[in-house]
Write the structure tokens for this entry.
Amino acid sequence: MFLSWPYFGLFCCVVEGSNRDLLELAVEKQNTTEYIVHHLTNLTAGEGFWTVHLDTLFFSALLGVIFLVLFTWAAKKATSGVPGGLQNFTEIMVSFVDEQVSSTYHGKSELIAPLALTIFVWVFLMNLMDLVPVDLLPLIAGMLGIHYLKVVPTTDLNATFAMSISVFILILFYSVKVKGVGGFAKEVFFHPFGKWMLPFNMLFKLIEELAKPISLALRLFGNLYAGELLFILIALLPWWIQWTLGGIWAIFHILVITLQAFIFMMLTIVYLSMASEDHDH
């Protein structure tokens, strides 16, 4: 169930107006390179710097709405009696995230715990799209005249950098809020080598701060992109071996997508905790 369905193309062939080029790529797989490139190409609008990845925006927004609706529904239906499955799940998630924040973040902020919960669940849902059969949604989109469709937002470097840059902005905000403009400037210019090494202090601080969003974005992107590519390669194999290899990889990949969501959340908490602490202290 995790890979391309070997007989799905037979059904698509009888659908009026189906995209013949997409069927050849997804079912017959006559051109391996073109098939791989096709699945790794985003649906875009615009040109150059202003190019927008429509599929990334759509699926990330859709999964974000699903997260908000589910947790809002669970909150409204919460009861002190026997809880349902959804309430149990949300309570476990909230307790788990709250425990991580309490043990890691040493400042005072009402934003950190909700932010951590949002990051973990949202990133996990985006990663979870990697377990959808690689040909299923692109074939359906092809029937509607949409030639390209990437369904895993975290395999798009633009999405992972957008999230990491948002975290970076929060890091700067908390640094200035907690330490003040003067305290933050003192940390930038005079640490760690003192005022006589000001250029080197600034250089080290710049490298230290820029490394945070870059590492956040590239770690998440690299792991999910590699996982998606492996699913595509398995889908190119004969149908009788796809299920075995795909099932093994999918079970392992469940751990990967969960771990990557957890790492992104934990690093965000750690970075914000560091930003909220006085350097001298």
Observations:
- The radius of gyration is 23 Å.
